[in-house]
Amino acid sequence: MQATQLLLTLAGNVVLLLWGLHMVQSGLIRAFGGDLRNLLSVGLRNRWSAMAAGLGVTTLLQSSTATGLMVAGFAATGAMPLVPALAAMLGANVGTTLIVQLFAFDAARLAPVLLLAGFLAFRRGARTRTRDLGRVGIGLGLMLLSLHLLLVTIEPVGGDAAFREILAVLTGDPVIALLLAAVLTWAAHSSVAIVLLIASLAGTQVIAPHAVLAMVAGANLGSAINPILEGPGGGGPDGNPAVRRLPVGNLLNRAVGCLLVLVAGDPIVAAMTRLSGSGGRLAADFHLLFNLALAALFVLPLPALARLLVRLFPERVSVADPSAPLHLDRAALAAPHLAIANAAREALRMSDTVEVMLRGALDVFRTGDRKLIQEIRRMDDVLDRLQSAIKEYLTHIEPDEMDERDARRAAGILTLVINLEHVGDIIDRSLMDAASKKIKRKLRFSEEGAAEITGMLERLLSTQRLAAAVFVSGDLRAARSLMREKEVMRDLETRATEAHFARLRAGRGESLETSALHIDILRDLRRINAHLAATAYPVLDRSGELRTSRLKETDGGHGQPSLR
What we know:
The protein is mostly helical. It contains 24 helices and two strands. It has helices at 2-43, 47-61, 64-76, 82-95, 97-103, 111-124, 128-157, 161-171, 174-188, 191-203, 209-223, 226-230, 245-263, 265-276, 280-298, 302-312, 336-367, 370-395, 404-440, 447-473, 476-505, 509-513, 515-533, 537-542, and strands at residues 551-553, 561-563. Helix 13 (245-263) crosses helix 15 (280-298).
C-alpha cells in the first residue's frame, strides 16, 4: 500500500505540473496568439531568421507543438518552403529548454506570490489580456508548487533500498531508460514536464548520471513522436504524404541526437558532470546543450535534409474528394485561434463551391444543359458534408480556451457555413427543380423574363464575392454594402414580378406557360441573397449598427408597435 500511495502521489504531482504548464500555454496563446503568429510569419524568410523566430515564439509559449502547428499551417498553404520550416523547429526545440533552466533553480518560495498575483489578475482584471496573464501567473505558481511537492515526495524514499532497486532496473540500461522517457513524454504530451521530473529524480540522487542523460534524450525523442501520430493524416490512403515532411524531419534530427548519446555516452557524461555536477542541474543543462548541439549540427545541411524528405514523401497527385475537409487539422484544436483559422479556410471552400453552383445555375438557364444540373446537385452534397465537418470541428474547441474575439469569430464561421448550406439547398431543391421542369416540358421564358432571371443571378454572383470579402476582412464599409444588397435584390424582384404580370395581362404566351416557374425562381433568388447578406450581421453587430427590432412604437398611445 505504501508503494501504491507513493506512485499515486507522484502521478498527482506530475498531473499538477502538466496542468500548470497547460495554463501557462493557454494563457499566453489567448493573450498573444495572433501577435506570435504574425511574428513567426515575418521570421520565416530564411533558415536563420526562421530559427530565431521559432526560438522566440516557443520561449514564450513553452510548447514546440504549438509552434509546430503554426509553422505547419504556413507550410501547408505554400507560404513558406520546407527549409525555413525545419529551421523554425530547430529553434523551437531550443526554446522549450529555457523554462527548464528557470525551474532548475530552487524558486519554490515564489509559488505563493505567483498564485496570489495570478488569481487577483484573473478575477479582478478589467481587460481580457490581464485575465489571460493572470492564468499564466497561476500556471507558473502551480508548476513551482508541483516541483516542490515532487521533491518532498521523493526525498524521504530516496534512501529506500527497494525504491532504488526498482529505479535501477528501469534505468540501468541506457536504451531502456531512453525508451522509457520517450514513452512517458509521448503519453504526457510535454517534454518540459518529463525533463523537470527527471531533474527532480536526479536532484535526490536516485538515478545515475548515465540514466539522466539517456532519459533527457528520450524525452526529446518522445516530444517529436506526437506530431507524427496525431498530426495531419498524410499517411492515410486519401491523405497527402507531403504533410509528413516537417514532423518527420524534426523526428530525424532528434533520433540522430539520441543515437549520438547512446554511442558516446561515457565521454558526454564525464563532460556534463564536470560542468553541472550530478544533481538536478545536470538534466536541465544537458537538455539545453542537447538541443543547441542539434541546431548547430543540422542548420547547415537542412537543404539536403529537405531534399531527402521530398523524395521520401512526394506530393500526391490524385483527384481529391471535393467534400473531404483539407484544413481541419485535429492537432490544431490545442490552439483555439489556429483551429478557428483552419475552420475559416474550410468555410471559404464552401463559399467557392457556392460560387461555382451559382455560375452553373446561370449557364443552365441560358443553355438548358441537363448534365450540368446533375453536377450542381452533386455540389450541394459537397456543401452538406463540409458544413457538417466544420460544425463538428468547432464543437471540439474547448470554450474555456477561447477569448471573446475567438468566440465571436467561431460564431461568425458557423453563421456563414449554415447560410451557405441553405443557399446550396435552395439551388439544388428549388432552382434546379425549376430548371428540370423547364427543360422537360420544353418551356421558354419570354426574352424579358429570361433577362430578369439571368440579371439577378449575375447580381448574386457579385453579392457572393462581396460576402466572402466581408467574411475574410471584417470591413465595416463592405458589410454595409452587403446589407444594401438586400434592398437592391428586393427591388429587382418587385420590378421583375410587376413586369411579369404586365406581360400576363398583355396575353404573352411564354409568360402564361412559365408563370409559376418564373415567380418561384424570383422568390428563390431573393432567398439566396438574404442568406448571403447575413454574412454582414456579425460585423455590423460588433460595431453596434444593427437594430434590436424592426418595429417602432406608434403615437396612438396604445403602446402597440407598427411595422416599419
